[in-house]
Amino acid sequence: MKKAILLCGSNIGERENQLLLSQTLLELGGQLNILKISSLYETAPWGDREQSAFLNQALLIETSLSPMELLHHLKDIEIKAGRVNTRKWGPRALDIDILYYGDDVIIEENTLCIPHAEVQNRAFALVPAAEIAPHWIDPRNGKTIAELCVLCPDSLPVKKLALTGDAI
User: Is 49 labeled as catalytic in the residue annotation?
Assistant: First the structure.
């Protein structure tokens, strides 16, 4: 089993319900377990700013799925939750990204990049991830997620809304 950090986000419809749905769908099939869940964070949209704010939440999981199998599982969940790709960085009912997979995995392919290619530049991803795994080391640069938060150039607001805590 490998540990991974996921980032879930939604800015369409019942955002909090979408994040709760993602947690339920993630654990179906028994190939992964949610170990920790961050607080909810309301964040400004990144890239295309002409849209509603996102709710984001990081999850620490343990999985038997390979990185590519996990990616396909996440894409299926997004579709089940009503995701329709309209434009790059556009509004999403549900978006689930793999931020990290294992503590030493680096993948750079067309369809999958681990660690997430822009994680070090996105406060909306780093802040929730630092809450649940501050000492996780980014294998590309050897810095912890907590250190990356401090160094992050992104100044868009990330507002903590509610504490969720450990999974049951």
Answer: no
